[in-house]
Amino acid sequence: MKISIIGTGYVGLVAGAVFSNNGLNTCCIDIDAEKIKLLSTGKSPIYEPLLEEQISSGIRKNTLTFSTKYNSIADSEAIFLAVGTPDLPNGSANLSYLYGAIDQVSKLIKKDAILVIKSTVPPNTCKDIKKYLEKLALANEVVMNPEFLRQGSAVNDFLNPDRIVIGCSSLDAKDKMLKVYENWKDIPKVITDTTTAEMIKYAANSFLATKVAFINEMADLCHHFDGDINMLSYALGLDKRIGKGALKAGPGYGGSCFPKDVSALIHVSKNTGNHILKAVHQANSQRPRLMVEKIKKIVGNVKGKKIGVLGLSFKANTDDIRFSPAIKIVSLLKDAIITAFDPAAMDNAKRVLPDIRYATTLCEVAESADCLLILTEWEDFKDIDYNLIFSKMAKPVIIDLRNLVDKHKLRKIGFSYFAL
């Protein structure tokens, strides 16, 4: 089966690479010529565990190709659209890239091919696309097939999803999609209409964002009453009605999905009195400022003080800094002298934080520092030689906003250790 994927971001690239290793002849298309040139050599432009191996394997099998030209879709049975739908200033989703891709696809698509939307889009978008195609004298079926990947574990998530959601309105479209996913035999397939499939994606991300905002407020209460947020999170997660996912207290959620999806759902539901998501969005927006207030209570006036920062990406195992709480916190500490380190995200961070210093090693971050902040939950930060770190710091103060490191170990060394 021949498929094409438009867009080589996190979703499109992971999908294309994994599909190509599961028997589908896959062409990934992107307008970025430099990116396509890099991908054609088997290299990934984004940091994502196991992705480069999947890309190289697909190229070796001759089932994965990359192109800047849309003419490769002419013989595809399914064309997946995985372009960005970023939020606009009013919170709504920007669909201009999606419709721009549809205009290109419409010139070449086979009459019996299906158009599969993997981009996150507001409810009824697929119906609108169907009407748009009809105005272009095209009768192609439009399918909604949302993705639920977590950056940092995207390849494994695509290979082993909790469910596969397929929104369609015809048996032919359903059969083609089941053929696409025929190697995912034991995975539940949720077959529904396109609007419900669109809603499932928004609802999933919004619910997870709500859990994050909730556990962060519980962390604040634990601080006030001298409770243990780690034990509270553990106990909540054991409740099967709640589940353990997204119950890790921290400086707030970020990335390319939760912030924009919550904003978009607030926008489309503005006439329905959606109060919960507004509160979630507000609580998360305030989180970095609250973390900076916590830092200043511990450190005092930060002006001129040397602060080491461990972690800049919005979460571990990714180089993505979009809506990263770490970036926001560093920005709010502009009066301090910041030295930062991240295993993958420093090149991206330099574009938005050009005025701070970037360390080449973990130990360099601690040199003469008055305080060390842990802002991203990289496993690397657990295994640091903290005895060496202790010897390098001017003041051995660690503020761990991810509750990552063993407090007993650090306090035994002699650190003043603070966490959520």
Automatic annotation (TrEMBL):
Organism domain of life: Bacteria
Active site: 257
Enzyme Commission number(s) from the entry: 1.1.1.22
Single Gene Ontology MF annotation: NAD binding
Catalytic activity: UDP-alpha-D-glucose + 2 NAD(+) + H2O = UDP-alpha-D-glucuronate + 2 NADH + 3 H(+)
Pfam families in the cross-refs: UDPG_MGDP_dh, UDPG_MGDP_dh_C, UDPG_MGDP_dh_N
Keywords for the protein's UniProt record, in alphabetical order: NAD, Oxidoreductase
Residue sites binding substrate per the record: 201, 254, 315
GO process annotations (BP): polysaccharide biosynthetic process; UDP-glucuronate biosynthetic process
Domain UDP-glucose/GDP-mannose dehydrogenase C-terminal: 308-407
Pathway where it operates: Nucleotide-sugar biosynthesis; UDP-alpha-D-glucuronate biosynthesis; UDP-alpha-D-glucuronate from UDP-alpha-D-glucose: step 1/1
Residues annotated as binding NAD(+): 30, 35, 85, 120, 260, 322
Membership in a protein family: Belongs to the UDP-glucose/GDP-mannose dehydrogenase family.
Protein name: UDP-glucose 6-dehydrogenase
Organism field: Candidatus Phycorickettsia trachydisci
